[in-house]
Amino acid sequence: MAKTEFKKVTTHTLHEMKMRGEKISMLTAYDFSFAKIIDDAQIDVILVGDSASNVMAGHISTLPITLDQMIYHAQSVIRAIDRALVVVDLPFGSYQGDSKEALKSAIRIMKESGAHAIKLEGGAEVIESVKRILSAGIPVMGHLGLTPQSIFKFGTYTVRAKEEAEANKLRTDAKLLEEAGCFGIVLEKIPADLAKEVTDSLNIPVIGIGAGAGVDGQVLVLHDLLGITKEFNPRFLRRYLNLYDSVKGAVENYIKDVKSQDFPNDKEQY
Ligand code: KIV
């Protein structure tokens, strides 16, 4: 059967979508099988997020995941996709403080995985890294608001930029990232009014997670949307499945069938 022809999503496509007011859909994926499903479903952007540190590796934060591990996840995702734009997070420690190191990290991701773009967290503090990566022709996505790599500085996962000083810094950082040449920005867990204001003030697409409806698109962690993670229940999360219970139930049934010798039956053997 002929493979369906899709137009591949590019950074340019995302810009056009913002211009015509079409919302952008984005989800995380870290492995071949899930990436294939969500690409077939025609997700616009796949983020190989450093949330892999939490949902794939079981760490309590995104800090421990390494550049090699991010590249491994990105390679698995890239093998699966036909259509989506694949953005990969630069992990903690691979870009802060040294823009040459940042460029090296970004080049490794692009070269070794075949990804289409990278994402990094922060504004003014990382602007030299952003500029240097962009100068090599690598598309960069920013990430402001609740930036999980700074969780130990924040001390809490609550909503960011509620105070005017932090909101002002976010406005300035968003402009800086746009002026530097980023193709988009993720805004995480900030007041909806502020997210809308920033979105309206920029020409590049703004993707929100816990940032309300006034942004250009939405991103969620796939494992949260599918109900694989049970304990994580922020207000912004909409679960579309309860996969934890479905998978657990299926495995319990399998165990029961093995123990009772119901599986395999006559038709399930050679
Ligand atoms: O790593 C991640 O999953 C992310 C999203 C929450 C935006 O950065």
Report on the architecture of this protein.
- The protein is α/β, with parallel strands linked by helices and 270 residues long.
- 41% of the residues lie in helices and 13% in strands.
- The chain folds into two domains: 11-239, Phosphoenolpyruvate-binding domains (TIM Barrel), CATH 3.20.20.60; 243-270.
- It has eleven helices and eight strands.
- An eight-stranded parallel β-barrel has the order 1-2-3-4-5-6-7-8, surrounded by seven helices.
- Helix 6 links the parallel strand 4 and strand 5.
- It is globular, with a radius of gyration of 20 Å.
- The relative contact order is 0.12.
- The site of 3-methyl-2-oxobutanoic acid (KIV) has 12 residues, from strand 6.
For the structure shown, list the relevant keywords.
13% strand; binds 3-methyl-2-oxobutanoic acid; 2 domains; 8 strands; 270 residues; eight-stranded parallel β-barrel; alpha/beta; TIM Barrel; single chain
Task: Present the secondary structure layout.
Elements: H1 11-20, E1 24-28, H2 32-40, E2 45-48, H3 52-55, H4 67-78, E3 85-89, H5 99-113, E4 117-119, H6 127-135, E5 140-145, H7 151-154, H8 164-180, E6 184-188, H9 192-201, E7 206-209, E8 217-220, H10 222-225, H11 243-259
Parallel strand pairs: 1-2, 1-8, 2-3, 3-4, 4-5, 5-6, 6-7, 7-8
Helix pairs in contact: 2-4, 4-5, 5-6
The protein binds 3-methyl-2-oxobutanoic acid.
> What's the SSE pattern?
HEHEHHEHEHEHHEHEEHH
**What is the CATH C level class of the largest domain, in words?**
Alpha Beta
What strand line-up does the widest sheet have? 1-2-3-4-5-6-7-8
Shape: globular
**Count of extended strands:** 8
Q: So how many helices?
A: 11
Mean pLDDT, as a whole number? Answer: 97
The fraction of residues in strands falls at 5-15%
CATH architecture of the largest domain: Alpha-Beta Barrel
Q: Describe the main β-sheet briefly.
A: 8 strands, parallel, barrel
Count structural domains. 2
Helix residue percentage: 40-55%
**What structural class do you assign from the helix and strand content?**
alpha/beta
End-to-end distance, in Å? 30 Å
Low-confidence stretches: none
> Could you give me the name of the CATH homologous superfamily of the largest domain?
Phosphoenolpyruvate-binding domains
Hetero groups in this structure are:
3-methyl-2-oxobutanoic acid
CATH topology of the largest domain: TIM Barrel
Using only C-alpha atoms, the radius of gyration works out to 20 Å
